[in-house]
Amino acid sequence: MELTHINEQGRAKMVDVSKKQETVREAIARGNIYMKKETLEKIKEGTIKKGDVLSVAQVSGIMAAKKTSDIIPMCHPIMISGCDIVFTLNFEENKIEITSTVKCTGQTGVEMEALTAVTAAGLTIYDMCKAIDKEMAISDVVLLKKTGGKTGLFERK
Amino acid sequence: MELTHINEQGRAKMVDVSKKQETVREAIARGNIYMKKETLEKIKEGTIKKGDVLSVAQVSGIMAAKKTSDIIPMCHPIMISGCDIVFTLNFEENKIEITSTVKCTGQTGVEMEALTAVTAAGLTIYDMCKAIDKEMAISDVVLLKKTGGKTGLFERK
Amino acid sequence: MELTHINEQGRAKMVDVSKKQETVREAIARGNIYMKKETLEKIKEGTIKKGDVLSVAQVSGIMAAKKTSDIIPMCHPIMISGCDIVFTLNFEENKIEITSTVKCTGQTGVEMEALTAVTAAGLTIYDMCKAIDKEMAISDVVLLKKTGGKTGLFERK
Amino acid sequence: MELTHINEQGRAKMVDVSKKQETVREAIARGNIYMKKETLEKIKEGTIKKGDVLSVAQVSGIMAAKKTSDIIPMCHPIMISGCDIVFTLNFEENKIEITSTVKCTGQTGVEMEALTAVTAAGLTIYDMCKAIDKEMAISDVVLLKKTGGKTGLFERK
Amino acid sequence: MELTHINEQGRAKMVDVSKKQETVREAIARGNIYMKKETLEKIKEGTIKKGDVLSVAQVSGIMAAKKTSDIIPMCHPIMISGCDIVFTLNFEENKIEITSTVKCTGQTGVEMEALTAVTAAGLTIYDMCKAIDKEMAISDVVLLKKTGGKTGLFERK
Amino acid sequence: MELTHINEQGRAKMVDVSKKQETVREAIARGNIYMKKETLEKIKEGTIKKGDVLSVAQVSGIMAAKKTSDIIPMCHPIMISGCDIVFTLNFEENKIEITSTVKCTGQTGVEMEALTAVTAAGLTIYDMCKAIDKEMAISDVVLLKKTGGKTGLFERK
């Protein structure tokens, strides 16, 4: 199989999707941000009392999903029709699991939008906690599932 | 130690850095994107012959570094004075290591710019290869080193 | 009735509109900018002779309408299909009335686009006249009317 | 006194500030968003329990402050060094008072940044509550105070 | 024939296209960048060995095509469905010919997107070579052909 | 002489300017847009009566100058301190001459900002007149002069 983004001069192009069908498409992506236990506790306190780091991360992830085609050079502009992000605090592994879901009706999928939402949310958590923890790591950012389009269902094993 | 981005109403603010000194600052970040061996080989062929996925990833990472304060809500706008990205293909672990270096002279550091460059480059590699490999994973995105500013040198152990 | 933008974790989400029908939608918004009589006279002179503050405000309002989903976090991206702004100088109340009309064919309305156009045009008038009048006030920014979509016609009483 | 943004051809220009001194500058702006009592109560509930509309408005205001020179055509790009927004719920007048404070060290002031933050925060409140209240009005958006620069202190009477 | 972008107050508006039909549309634009023979040779070396100026120009042109409605005030936002750029080195005239092709399915054409891609690619070549040649000139930027829409085929004679 | 934007891996980088001195810098660029005589007459009428195409082109050029580092991948972000554009209608050659002047105080020059302003203004003229003239051509976009920085004065012969 060949890379599809390369033109005859060997340079990148935006693949022509004008003959693809408009279908409802959904993508779910996930990633983790690992941190010190103390950092995770600070974040948890904030979600209970005041200073919710995760609500800022949520906004940044959703806004980044809308900016995806401005960040990823060969991405088609897409009018996403829905976006949500869910955070799961995991005190056993000292991490926050970030899961994004993006939907659209269009000629091309929203995998990149979902992945971009996860990384932007992770970067925002890093930014807001870096004064107390510079060793956080964003990891395991993967596409969990996508539906719609010619290739149909993909689910990560 | 307390989170610094939270105002008295418990909401996020952009921290006031107007009394911080302008110093030369540098940050180095790194991350990996894991993929199938075949995908890594396709990318390697491109760098030798034609269709260089990594040159597009490079451009996207540098452009994303400039957009950092537009992606991360509480980040200060920064005029970065230099940015470079280096890719290392690793056939033992079937991954590409992405290392970014960002510089500025300013009142606040460029850690987030370096981390944003790495993730954008990783997402671009994903985008350009996803037709042949949807199981790629972006992992281990960390700050390796930063210099300058009040807190001075940080080096990841 | 409940706020619709909140997910189960109590955080903001972009509401899923993928099952909404595509209809022709229009929204009309209005606002006033109050100023000193002398400022209003300067602006009027400009529209007659040279230096048309309002033509810059017009451009800024139309461009801001296109940027709405980049400014308002939970707004869906929308391809607006038309936008116009009309200014009415009122020397009795020393104000300029700014009225915007925005159209689209889509799954969600253009109310926010119309309101954003009015505020951007008002802010631009402020910016271009602030050297002679810092006491201007933007007021009464409201949605006058919207048509299309499931909820149909809304008209402000 | 003359409008300063007009060139010899009678068209807008970005005023040359290259001979102005770099000073610390601050601007405080304020505005109100009026709504139904029920809407105000819903928002208050959210700040106590879940679904904090105001934390999204806060993020949007701060991000809009950074985008000011992209929204207001003749505004100079500015590296703001701090930004905060405070909301005051007023049940007597059924309004939320939005107050923004913006700082920078530069050749030109941050009045437009502070005003833009207030209007973006107001528009975001409108967006998140418009399903239950389309008659909200953004009003009284004014510059309260600015310090720094050649003209020094301005305080609204 | 009259200019269509002017409203009754004599100011610019975004023309209402909401009654236009959605058709497949394509536009091809072309331009030249003239330079010293030595500069052209340096660029050619890069495409053979390392340091491909044209691959960066390619990325910038495609990304600029996506940003067109953010650069050209009265342009409608468009979801382009494909974009490619081809470079032809001409050693007789010491120029690079830049040809862009843009496609979409929509209510309005992609002429401006194709022209914007050409100019951004040209400006990027200028930027990357200006250390060795400040006398480059971007010239002859024209629309070669467009198809689709009410006015149908246009071909430059 | 070598191209400066290429790193050791043969890919583009943003050149490190952190050791360059901050100086006052100015750049003047020029370009022409050729058109039918009738188009030029329509534009002239607009500048006398109503519907000033050139005032929209002016705004777009100035706003594009501010967006330069977002359009040209390896450009440093720059806080321009002034920008103006002048249009000269030439009925002998049926063209409009577009001249931009950009200033900044910084570590790197504003040549690209001046060139970007000229091309954006030209593209906007094209956009607003394309309903009556699709054969317009943007030509002769060159840097006329730049001052400041290590290389000092450049003047096009």
Automatic annotation (TrEMBL), chains A, B, C, D, E, F:
EC number annotated for this UniProt entry: 4.6.1.17
UniProt pathway: Cofactor biosynthesis; molybdopterin biosynthesis
Catalytic activity: (8S)-3',8-cyclo-7,8-dihydroguanosine 5'-triphosphate = cyclic pyranopterin phosphate + diphosphate
GO molecular function: cyclic pyranopterin monophosphate synthase activity
Record-linked SUPFAM superfamilies: Molybdenum cofactor biosynthesis protein C, MoaC
Family, similarity comment: Belongs to the MoaC family.
PANTHER family tied to this protein: CYCLIC PYRANOPTERIN MONOPHOSPHATE SYNTHASE (PTHR22960:SF29), MOLYBDOPTERIN COFACTOR SYNTHESIS PROTEIN A (PTHR22960)
Subunit structure: Homohexamer; trimer of dimers.
Function text: Catalyzes the conversion of (8S)-3',8-cyclo-7,8-dihydroguanosine 5'-triphosphate to cyclic pyranopterin monophosphate (cPMP).
Protein name: Cyclic pyranopterin monophosphate synthase
Phylogenetic placement of the source organism: Bacteria, Bacillati, Bacillota, Tissierellia, Sedimentibacter
Gene: moaC
